[in-house]
Specification:
The protein has one domain: Protein Transport Mog1p, Chain A (3-Layer(aba) Sandwich). It has five helices and eight strands; from the N terminus they run H-E-H-E-E-E-H-H-E-E-E-E-H.
Amino acid sequence: MRRPILTLAAVAILVLAGCGGSSSTASTPSVSAAPPSVGPAAAGGDQFGGDVCSALTNDEVVAATYPQGKATFDSTDTQKDAATGKAVVCQYLVTFDGKPSTVAVAVSLMDDTEYGTRAEVSLIAPPSAVPGVGSEAWLVQPAPGLFEAWVSGAHGKFKLGTQSRDTTIALAKLAAGRD
């Protein structure tokens, strides 16, 4: 069982690191931190006023606590739905101690089908309910050192991931307030 989990985690990291996208403020950076897993493109919705990168502010991203230390905001990078051209993933890129840009936080829009797969995706431990975030939220851990909050809110569903459980929950609460 251990080998398939590690293989799946490694594949997810490689796929995500290789995913291009149109960068809204900088060229595609090198990714040295594992971003949250990216699932199928979400079916639209009104999350975040139609701009997934407005889920969090730059100040909120750098004020968060990360295992790598204090972050300095660099830029955002988006991944778009091939059919609609709409951004469905926003990666908030930061530097830690002046080192190359890394993904500190990623927010992905989700559809009902993907939201329902949280038990299958949470490979490390079963999903756990997170009270007080959106109308419903679950903490999912798809790989070692990767935490995602899967949130259902008034305008749709999204997931937000970081490398810290507490940071993921705190930032998901902020983003859910904008949902």
